Input
Amino acid sequence: MIRFIIIVIYLLLYLLLSIPVLFIEWIIGKKDPGLKDRSSKAIVGWGFRCITKLAGTDLIVRGLENIPKDTAVLYVGNHRSYFDIVLTCSAFPRVTGYVAKLEMRKWPLLNLWMKNIHCLFLDRDNIKEGLKTILKGAEEVKKGISLCIFPEGTRNKVNDTFLPFHDGSFKIAEKGGVPVIPMVIVNSAGVFEDHMPKIRRARVVIEFQEPIYIDRLEKEVKRNLGSYVSGIISERYFQLKKEFYPG
Output
C-alpha cells in the first residue's frame, strides 16, 4: 500500500510542478513543433520511468530491432493493466501517441501532456466520432508520428486470456500506409491489478514482433486482421511466459 501512496503523491507533484514546463513546451511548439514533440516525449518518458522505479518493476524490453527506423508505425498490443501505458511509453524509440478512451481527456494537466505526445481520444460509443479519430490517426502516422492502440478496446480483467481484437483498430495503419508492430506484454497486471490496491515488485516483459505490412497480406488475412494479429501476440505471449515465469 505504501508504494501506491508514494506513486499517487509523485504523480500529483509531477503534474503540478510541470505547469511551467507545459508553458515552455507551448512556446517551443510555436517555433519548432518537432523539437516540442521530442522534448515532450523525453519529459513524459522520464516521468514514467520514475514511476516504474517507484513501483519496483523489473522491465525487460526485447525486439527493438524489429521496429523500422524509416517510418512511423502502429503498435498494437494486449491490454491487461493500467501500467501498460506507463511501461510502453518509455520503451518506444520515437515520439508515439496513444489512442486512449475519451474519458482520459477530462483529466486536467495529464490531458495536456497526452496531447503533447499526440495522443488521440476515442469515443467508443459514437461510431461517427470514432471514425473521425481513426482518420485523424491515419493522418498522424502519415506525418511520421507513431501511434499505439490496444485493439481489445478495454482492459482485459482475466490473466492469460485475450479479448477479441477489433478489426477497425488497424484502419490507422491501413489508411496511413504504415506497418503494424505486434507488441506482447507479459505480467503487467503483476504490478497492480493482481492485488489491488497494493503495488508490488514484478518482472514485466515487453517484446516487439516483426512488422506486418498490410498491403502485402492475402485478402483473407486482411478480412480477419484482428484475429491474425491476436494469434501472433497470444502465441508469443505463452512462449515468453514459459521462458520468464516457469512453473
Notes: The chain has one domain: 2-244. The chain has a mean pLDDT of 94. The longest strand covers residues 180-186. The chain has nine helices and seven strands.
